[in-house]
Amino acid sequence: MKVTRELFSDVMVPNYNPAKMIPVKGKGSRVWDQDDNEYVDFAGGIAVNVLGHCHPELVGALKEQGEKLWHLSNVWTNEPALRLAKKLTDLTFADRVYYANSGAEANEAALKLARRWALDHHGEQKNQIISFKKGFHGRTFFTVTVGGQEAYSEGFGPKPGAVEHAEYNDLESLKALMSDNTCAVMMEPLQGEGGIIEPTDEFVKGVRELCDQHNALLIFDEVQSGVGRTGKLYAYMNLGVTPDILTTAKSLGGGFPVGAMLTKADIAESLKPGTHGSTYGGNPLACAIAEKVLDVVNTPEVLDGVKQKEQLFRDGIKAINDKYNVFSEVRGQGMLLGCALNDEYQGRARDFLMASNDQQLMVLVAGANVVRFAPSLIIPDEDIREGLARFERAVAAVVNG
């Protein structure tokens, strides 16, 4: 059977509009399509392929566990799940782990836990959840409502209630919404889909203080910022602020679907047997791979390398911008960077994505005004240089019409 891009339109629901080419093979930060054209990958599966494509140690973990045990359900536990949970709790503020299959599911669990915890300790009136405009927390009905982008939540009927949105980096707007009925504040410690926005020091510390003041839980959505992407294992470690609940997915599996919610023991008590669950959550195959990802990423070599590679990207983007003057700034940290378009190119991020694709470079957007890079943490320097050369040709193509 010949598989073509046209087949997509015949058999798939039209909620995606993928590129014309179909990738068939990946190695490190290079990808090949059906016609054997080679692409440089700055997209990383949307901040997922943390160690690139087909990393030998991840392939090894997959093969080894694949010969042993794939799935049991949560009627039984398994060794990889327990080993991974021990590592996650040893390496973070958390004492307890809940497994899911994605970031949205990890966030769903975090939100349900926050509501149950508030009910158990403070009564049913304490149910308000506050998040931030332009935030993104997933596509389930609860998480998309908590997310601060109406385009994603409109048109599906009545939304879950008691959810409010403040302005990111604006403490007064959060203060105006908070009360003793707030059960949780959910935020990304580095906004991803909303345009790669970093929190100010004053803001993130102020959010923590307001949560303490009102007995509310602080939930950090680290689905995109976690597992080494900022040069620390988790972004909160750079901020001097510790959340009560943290969610992690994307890079955690290095390309294999897995998510986790991390929290303190006393908060975790509110998810008693039967209150929440996931058929596949914590399956041995996913956990064995995620454990290997943690072992490889959480080394000085990889984490320190992220900062050095970030500088290489920033220098290269500056050189391109000195020539073509299309970006107002480069946002973000580590291997999560956003090239914000200046006034002249507002709304045209997708044009740069398409032009990059034509130059055999895979990039992302974060909204209509930001071109996003989220490559492997171990992308070789020569691939960064080659990718930026292709990006320069793409920028030139957009600028020259």
Automatic annotation (TrEMBL):
Entry's Gene Ontology BP terms: L-arginine biosynthetic process
Any one GO MF annotation of this record: identical protein binding
GO CC annotation: cytoplasm
InterPro entries named in the record: Ac/SucOrn_transaminase_bac, AcOrn/SuccOrn_fam, Aminotrans_3, Aminotrans_3_PPA_site, Class-III_PLP-dep_AT, PyrdxlP-dep_Trfase, PyrdxlP-dep_Trfase_major, PyrdxlP-dep_Trfase_small
Positions bound to pyridoxal 5'-phosphate: 103-104, 136, 221-224, 279
Annotated catalysed reactions: N(2)-acetyl-L-ornithine + 2-oxoglutarate = N-acetyl-L-glutamate 5-semialdehyde + L-glutamate
Main location: cytoplasm
Cofactor note: Binds 1 pyridoxal phosphate per subunit.
Residues annotated with N6-(pyridoxal phosphate)lysine modification: 250
Keywords for the protein's UniProt record, in alphabetical order: Amino-acid biosynthesis, Aminotransferase, Arginine biosynthesis, Cytoplasm, Pyridoxal phosphate, Transferase
Pathway noted in the entry: Amino-acid biosynthesis; L-arginine biosynthesis; N(2)-acetyl-L-ornithine from L-glutamate: step 4/4
Uppermost EC category: transferase
Chain residues that bind N(2)-acetyl-L-ornithine: 139, 278
This enzyme's EC code(s): 2.6.1.11
Pfam short name (any one): Aminotran_3
Cofactor requirements of the protein: pyridoxal 5'-phosphate
Subunit and interaction comment: Homodimer.
Further facts: May also have succinyldiaminopimelate aminotransferase activity, thus carrying out the corresponding step in lysine biosynthesis.
HAMAP family: ArgD_aminotrans_3
Family under the similarity heading: Belongs to the class-III pyridoxal-phosphate-dependent aminotransferase family. ArgD subfamily.
Name the UniProt record assigns to this protein: Acetylornithine aminotransferase
Source organism: Saliniradius amylolyticus
